[in-house]
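Quick start: what a row looks like.
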Amino acid sequence: MKKVAELKIYGHKLVVKSEEGEDYIRAVEDYLNNKIEEVKETTKAVSTLDLALLAALNITGEVLKSKEMLERLGRKSEELAELIDRRLV
């Protein structure tokens, strides 16, 4: 069942529906606010939209790198499982 939560992202209130629990929603809120603050400290972007877009780009990069690493680990674990199976036969 989806729950309604009010978030505050960089001073803007948003109401979202989510099946995740309150702790998860707050963790997402905190993570995004922290990423926006990081961008603010390292760039000269001044508009809220620019800060949000740059934070979104950074987060997207993190997600893609994590996805790539997960795929590599999956392939490696399959290779190791095959090696183990061959040794056991």
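That is the whole record. The helical segments are 22-42, 48-88. The mean pLDDT is 95.
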